[in-house]
Specification:
The protein is an all-alpha fold. It is built from 4 helices and no strands.
């Protein structure tokens, strides 16, 4: 199996998996957009291999694989920053709800006595 065919199969697999997971409600649309975009780029560069070579030479990368590793690292950093942001928001919401529950419980106990 050639690497081009493997790239096409992998990108279509990521695309189908992302759509199925999104339809089940297990992933938000904005995260699904990232994965669908990544699968589209993989598919594009798998079909048009010369485009990857041209982009890597234009950006002064020695080989196309160096460009792929660099782009993958940037994407992973972007995803980690986004997840950190989401986690911070959820932690803040959780703290606010815990305080609100404690105040309601305290008020309920006062009225009960």
């Amino acid at each position: 199996m050639s690497t081009y065919l493997l790239g096409i199969i992998a990108s279509l697999g990521i695309f189908v998996f992302t759509i199925r997971v999104m339809r089940r409600g297990l992933i938000k649309e904005r995260f699904a957009f990232i994965w669908v975009s990544i699968s589209g780029l993989i598919l594009f560069f798998a079909i048009f291999n010369n485009a990857l070579v041209w982009v890597s030479k234009s950006l002064t990368f020695e080989t196309p694989s160096n460009l792929l590793f660099f782009a993958g690292t940037i994407v992973i950093i972007f995803i980690l920053v986004q997840y950190s942001y989401e986690l911070g928001k959820l932690e803040s919401q959780n703290r606010k709800m815990a305080i609100e529950i404690a105040l309601l419980r305290n008020e309920f106990m006062k009225e009960r006595d």
